[in-house]
Structures are given as C-alpha cells and as structure tokens.
Write a structure and sequence with these properties.
Oligomer: single chain
Order of helices and strands: EEEEEEEEHEEHH
Shape: globular
Structural class: alpha+beta
Number of helices: 3
Length: about 130
C-alpha cells in the first residue's frame, strides 16, 4: 500500500474526524449513540464504526490529485514574515496561495519526505494546467 496523505472520515451527522499524526485518536459519538473513530495519522489507518454509513476520505500517494487537494491540509506555524503564529493554522492544499506554495516547494525539498515535496510540486502543475 502506498503512503497515506489524508486519514479522514465524515460521520453521518456531518462531523469530520481526521487523524493528522500517529496516535492522533479522534472519536465522535452521535446523538443517536453511534460511535465512529479514526486513528494513525499518516503512518497507518485505523477506523472504527457502529455502522458503515460514514464517508471515507482517505487518500494515498497516486490517488486523483483533484480529490487530494480538497482534503490534504498543511499546518502553518509561521506567518509570511517567518514570525510564529499564536495558533497553528490548517489550510487545505487547494487554499494555499501561489506564493506560499512556491515557498513550500523550496522548504520541503531537503528535510521532508519526498511524498510531501512531490505533493506540492503536483499542486503547482495542477494549477498551471487549469
């Protein structure tokens, strides 16, 4: 199986559960008592559910980029001037500005896994093709 990029489900009541890092256990109990959970971040996927009425938004390297960009999020801890933000900000890949995307391509080239760097490069190509 290829590398996970998004480990997320949407419960029948609309609650989004996303596990962003290993052991990031997310659980939701609906008002009708049904329980759903997701765990594992991008290291592994573990989903538990009372029934199969949830929507799975799990994406791997090689999946359709138009779907990945709708669900992959990047955590920003610095602003455009390199100053630490008071709280981290999560942005969907599709919502990252072009300037930020260019910076991320350079930033992730050396010290990040290839699949992260390649994702930003693929997003740049996707935008250029549109």
């Amino acid at each position: 199986m290829s590398q996970l990029l998004v480990n997320k489900i949407v419960c029948p009541d609309g609650t989004v559960l996303e596990s962003r890092h290993r052991y990031d256990y997310q659980e939701h109990k609906q008002s009708d008592g049904r329980i759903y959970f997701v765990d594992g971040g991008l290291d592994y996927q573990r989903i538990g559910f009372s029934d199969t009425k949830f929507t799975n938004h799990t994406y791997h390297v090689g999946d359709d980029h138009s779907k990945i960009r709708e669900h992959f999020t990047w955590k920003s801890v610095l602003d455009e001037n390199g100053e630490r933000l008071p709280e981290p900000v999560y942005r969907k890949l599709k919502d990252i500005t072009d300037d930020h995307l260019e910076a991320l391509i350079g930033f992730t080239e050396e010290d990040y896994p290839d699949y992260i760097h390649n994702l930003f490069v693929a997003e740049k190509s996707y935008r250029e093709d549109k």
